[in-house]
Design a protein that fits this description.
seven-stranded mixed β-sheet; Metallo-beta-lactamase, Chain A; 29% strand
């Protein structure tokens, strides 16, 4: 598996048989020119996870790519060709399996209705199992080797992120959902997760595709 963090929650995963982009949102432009994608996966409808103004252009560059989205996303953004990816289902892309887990976005405030959210688990025989939770900390899939963990969000506290990472128990991880914090906030989250969990966190910022 090769992987790149493309800003905020956007992650490119390249397995032996598939190139999969997760959460191409409007807090980043590093994913805009990607090509040869087999699937684009959207965990939920918030625009920092799906940019409806640019995504059609990305799809135009990747006409064979499947667009797999949390079921409420098409009603919000009207994305042509989107396939509803239901929680609890698994789809094949090449020789890889992509599973949708969870179902609800973490609560931001009682006054703000919860929306749908799917975590994404990618498994390929002979490669690490990768987990991207979207914006939720309530689902812990088994057998995860590599986790993309939120650094910060209006829907989570550091104590919750630490406990979540401990429960998942991945051997390695890196930070996502970092578009709302500065370098000091990023370093605080990075260092605490390395200190207080058994997961070894790596700095994936600006490193491009690397083999894991």
């Amino acid at each position: 598996m090769r992987l790149a963090h493309l800003g905020h929650s956007a992650v490119l995963v390249e397995t032996a048989s598939a190139r999969i982009l997760i959460d191409p949102g409007n807090f980043s432009d590093q994913w805009h020119d990607l090509a040869d994608l087999d699937a684009i996966v959207v965990t939920h409808a918030h625009p920092d996870h799906v940019d409806p103004s640019w995504l059609p252009r990305l799809l135009g560059r990747n006409r064979g790519a499947r667009l797999l989205v949390e079921p409420s996303v098409p009603a919000v953004h009207g994305l042509e060709g989107a396939e509803a990816f239901l929680p609890g289902t698994t789809l094949g892309v090449g020789a890889s399996e992509i599973a949708a887990v969870g179902g609800l976005h973490a609560l931001i405030h009682q006054a703000i209705p919860q929306i749908g959210n799917i975590g994404i688990v990618i498994r390929t025989e002979g490669e690490p199992a990768f987990f991207h939770p979207g914006d939720a900390l309530d689902t812990v899939p088994p057998g995860v080797d590599l986790i993309a963990a939120p650094a910060h969000g209006p829907w989570c506290a550091m104590k919750e992120i630490i406990d979540f990472v401990r429960q998942v128990g991945a051997s390695e991880g890196f930070l996502i959902h970092d578009g709302l914090i500065n370098e000091r906030g990023w370093s605080l989250a990075f260092n605490r997760l390395n200190e207080l969990t058994s997961t070894r966190f790596l700095d994936r910022r600006g490193r491009g595709l690397e083999t894991l």
